[in-house]
Amino acid sequence: MDLGAEVSRRTMLKGSAATAAALALPINRLLGYSAVAKGTEGGTVTLGVDDDAAGVAGVAKALIPFTKKTGIKVNVFSEAGASDTWVSVFQTISTRLAAGEPLDTAIIATEGMLLFENKGVLEPLDSYIAADKAVVQNFYNDINPQLLARYRALDAPHGHTYFMPLGYNVMGIWFNRELFKQLNIAEPAPDWTWDDFESIAAKIADPPNRYGYSIYTPPSPFTDVYPWVLTAGGEIMNPAQTKCVANNPGAIQAAEFVVGLIKKQLVNAPGGSYNPFTEAPGGKLGMLGAGIWPNISFGLPQKTINSQFAIVPWPQMPKPATPVGLGGLGIFKSSKNKAATWELIKYTMSEEFQADYQVAVAGGMPMRQSIARSKEFLSQYPPGTENFSNELTYSTMIVGVPNGSAVENEIGVAWEQILTGATSPAAGLEAMETTCNQLMAQQV
Predict the structure, then answer these.
(1) 103 lies in a domain?
(2) For the chain, how are helix, strand and coil distributed in percent, rounded to 5?
(3) What is the model's pTM?
(4) 89-100 pLDDT, tens per residue?
């Protein structure tokens, strides 16, 4: 993946999994993976992951403990498409299914779950959940209750459950503690505001040599649009995620704020190939927005990342807010290894997987809060990592909508047109709303 060329929402659940072995934590859990059901021993499960060849190798290596426990081999392949977007990922999976190629399960983000559920290509998980009720309930009991309720309400249509959540990401601000110290800037508090953020960015910025904050190129809805809009009290979609309502005062205020940062040269100009993951470690960038994935994307030793960076929640205006996205695993109807595939899904719910491999394999935070909030886990990552759990109580889930791939693309394109000055915030958001609603009405 070329982070310099494009960083999209799919990066959140990706991260270069080739580093899985290096990031795996040596934590012994009391509740590990239980023995497999009789009759599912052995066999092969084909798993699609959103990564390149090196990442595929990393995922395969991380799942060796599962194979040792069960005898079930995992054939990992790349579901990454020609471009670095969820659109290309979903196209790759759909093409593979249509061609009748082996595919038992794949890591799919919330943006694409509804797409595959409505295509009728997924096996309902109800009977598997019922057979392993105690295991699944133990997992559910360990998930943030607000997050679990929203997930089950929005991603379990037709009265069935089709996916088990694998990991999540919210948005926070990573800041370079070493640079802050050099410039004599106080580190931000968790309840900081937009004004605080702009003031700090202004103290850091020395364009074009150094910027206070970075926008992604091109901007994506999850990383660049939703955090600002939600904290301003605005919306892109209505609460039921059935209609685009982007033309509202909060969204306009958010767009105007980011445009102001660009005009003041506090951030990099939109377009081009600016790469925050190389600029920030070199002291040329003070802050960037992200979930937990920079631990992988920086490409630095974890000890170096932990000493150089820290994390705070997104700045408030007028309230705290963040998008949250999940990745999950389901079982495709075409699978000839459904029982073995369920065993793999069950393994990803275990404390063993969640503690040792979740960040490295899926690029997301562990669903299990007993792990995500534990001293053992947090001690492995930068100060402030606990904020990714704290933010869940006020998060807004970003899920798939009808024709979701095209809608996601339109949100990013329309936002970039606003940032480049091709259109005003009000006009750009009005056009976004109109086009997205037209796309959502199309049959795909």
Answers:
(1) yes
(2) 45, 15, 40
(3) 0.87
(4) 777 888 888 877
